[in-house]
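note to self: dont lose this again. the chain is below, predicted strucutre after it. 266 aa total, dont forget to put it in the shared folder this time
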Amino acid sequence: MMADEKKTPEAESEAPKVEETAAAEETKVEAATEEAAPAEEAAPAEEAAPVADDQRQGRGRGRGGNRDGGNRGRGGRDNRRGGRREEEDDGIIEKLVHINRVSKTVKGGKRFGFAALVVVGDGSGRVGFGHGKAREVPEAISKASAAARKKMVRVPLKEGRTLHHDGKGRFGAGKVTVRTAPPGTGIIAGGPMRAVFESLGVADVVTKSVGTSNPYNMIRATFDALTNQSSPKSVAQRRGKKVADLLGRGGATEAEAEADAAAVVE
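---
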């Protein structure tokens, strides 16, 4: 009984020490946990940063931002369009006649764009015109050029340099007169009409335009005059005669008429 009484005070003195040790260990564990928490929060942030960078790079590639990556996006599409246009322009003369700004009124306000008028030709008797509208100038020109290529017409030329005969054309209030000319005259025409004859391949012609300065009406009136052109060969076929018979009139000898008939290509 005496031994038990001696042990009991010692146990009571050691109990507070054990409790203090346990409390200190718990404090250390809590401090370590608090230090580890910011590190764990920083790690996901660092992992998210490359993902955000990758997303930005991917978005840039999708819109042409990374043009080195296969020419994808808008940049690549524009490059392909430009290359195709260069191939189509091989042997075709393309002239921009007029470009103006247009607007379309919609529910939310006005939408502005551009309208282009283009004349194309091969320089050997074929010519056409077209117009196109778009939000940007290059796209409007491309549309006009494509429309002009689809509507090219053939015009007979005398000796490959001038018209066979005089002619008149009209569209709206515009009136044009075209006259054949001797070698060395050049293209006496202004504005839109000059672009038409340069694309057509005419070297000598005299023209006159009255009634309007609208390039659209002038172009249409000029094409009206050109489509009414006819060559001696087509007239001879229509009338069932020989070309020499038609060219022999007007005091020309038979030999001269035959020579002129042989020189007629169209």
